[in-house]
Amino acid sequence: MATTIEVNKQSVKQLLETGKVNKFIIPEYQRPYAWADEQIQTLFEDLVEYTENDNESTYFLGTIVSYENENYEQEIIDGQQRITSLFLLLRALYSKLNSMTETKEVKNFKGQIESALWEQDELTAEVDFEKTLIESRVMRDEGNETFAKILISGTIEESAKDNYSLNYKLFTELIEKYATSEPELFFWFIRNVLNKAILLPITADSQDTALTIFSTLNDRGLALSDADIFKAKIYNHLDAEGRAVFIEQWQQLDDEATNTNESIQKLFYYYMFYLRALENDRNTTTPGIRKYYSRNNFEQLYKSDVMKNLNTVLNLWLVVNNRVEIEDEDWSKNIEIKQVLDGLTSYPNEFWKYPVVIYYLKYHGSQDFEDLFLKFLKKLLAVLAARYIVTPTINAVKRGILNLNSEIIRSSMPIFDFATINEQELKGKIKMAHRNTVRMILKILAYQNQEELLPEKWEIEHILPQKWQSSYFPSNSEGEVKELVEHIGNKIPFEKKLNIIASNGYFKKKQESYKKSKVQLLLDLSNQHNDWGLNEIRERDIRISDELLIILNDWGLNQSELPVQEEQSSVPTPEESKIIEELKRKGLI
């Protein structure tokens, strides 16, 4: 069936008066009213400038996209910020007129505003101030009631801090100032707001059509996100009982996602990769989430497990981002898992997140999940770290990650088709590791002898300071020292507060600060050395390259698939055994 839309430009008064027949509704799935003083000031000043220019052409305010719902109401899809602000402006103007001596002009404009704000008796035109032509139903928004009270009474509480109250107060102040300074223009200003300011209402035949129109418009207000549209689609697909439950679920998910520095939009994005993996979609071109979820008439959104799966994804980020433990999820108490996840967070882009989400969603209910998850995460970090150290670009792993996503669905010990790295090339590049990989390398090393997570705020400490005295190394060129200072062997994790205190001093001067650290790697280094110079950097470069390669191989680098048993991955070669013994002798592992 062909869709239809109705477009007919109208003055503010003409449009708002249509609320007498079809009341304006800000639906449950919309965002709370969010215009601040900047937008209010701009709107008012634009209308003042238009009035003072004595311009008889119309002033365009923007579009309002709506559709008539099953209750014969005008449900606003786009433009809710603007239309809400216009209602507040007219109510503030009405309050000012009410305080003035009733001249013919005052009486005229009070009547016009009454017709735009409230229901009236069709025969007598008597105004029912309790029945406004707009209602906000935004879920769990206390401002809905405040908005209604403002339109009914024209008053606010002095202590109110919500946007409705603050913006209404600002409108009253701006109006009072303008009416006092420009009394002759004031009534022309009201006339222009009501009759010369033009809106372009676009009325669609359905919510789907309205959402499609919205997605093609550049809204002057605060646009709906993809997640807002998904909320609308799911909400309208449910019955009354289902909607009530969904509203609570959505709001809780939204709040908790925000508290983890994520968002519902991001959760849908991560979940898309899981759904794509189920479909064995290995295409390296990532679709926009609205385009993806709109396929087949949004069928993925209507599945009963969507909210449950989004909450499961959120649990993962609660552990990763907030460092909390989740009841009945033993893996979240496993320090090794949390340390490897922390290492992955320092990977220079988001590609690591997709296979982790997929693996967690697919297998988190398995009896042996904790062991499987740890092995998988170690191999993922090993492969990603090695790949980026050798080739520090996104494209180095993009194809491999998309293949891995699908392989995870097939097996809890998936094939990594990008796990093979030239070991000599890797070792050669570790000492001069790209700046984007340094934190990740230091985390991997630190966690080999760290019983807890590293402090949340730590910096990369240059053991030999970046600002050194040239007299300290008289036999070395400035270029040689400058290069060695930036080698991995001269870098170590150090708490930010302690680092500030230690400043740019030399090793002995900083040792006291080092000894206060909770980073075991730094404590060990401080205890094992009395001084620090170029030879120490060179020696540590070699030790780090050797140790890191052993760790990454132990975790699954250069293995085409995960080992069935842990022992198979931990048996070192004779050459590696010598290195391990040397590291043990020096107390480094």
Give me the secondary-structure category.
alpha/beta
Number of DSSP E strands: 11
Percent helix, as a range, is 55-70%
Calculate Rg over CA atoms.
32 Å
Approximately what portion of the residues adopt beta-strand conformation? 5-15%
Mean pLDDT value: 89
Oligomeric state as shown: single chain
Shape: elongated
Main sheet makeup: 7 strands, mixed
Q: Between the first and last Cα atoms, what is the distance in angstroms?
A: 71 Å
Could you list the spans in which at least 5 consecutive residues all have pLDDT below 50? 218-222, 563-570
Given the structure, what is the number of helices? Answer: 27
Question: Key features?
Answer:
single chain; 589 residues; alpha/beta; 7-stranded mixed β-sheet; two-stranded antiparallel ribbon; 55% helix
Descriptive account of the structure:
The chain is an alpha/beta fold. 55% of the residues lie in helices and 9% in strands. It contains 27 helices and eleven strands. The strands form three sheets. Strands 1, 2, 3, 4, 5, 8 and 9 form a seven-stranded mixed beta sheet that branches. The chain has a two-stranded antiparallel sheet with strand order 6-7. Strands 10-11 form a two-stranded antiparallel ribbon. Strand 4 (59-68) and strand 5 form a beta hairpin. The N and C termini lie far apart (71 Å).
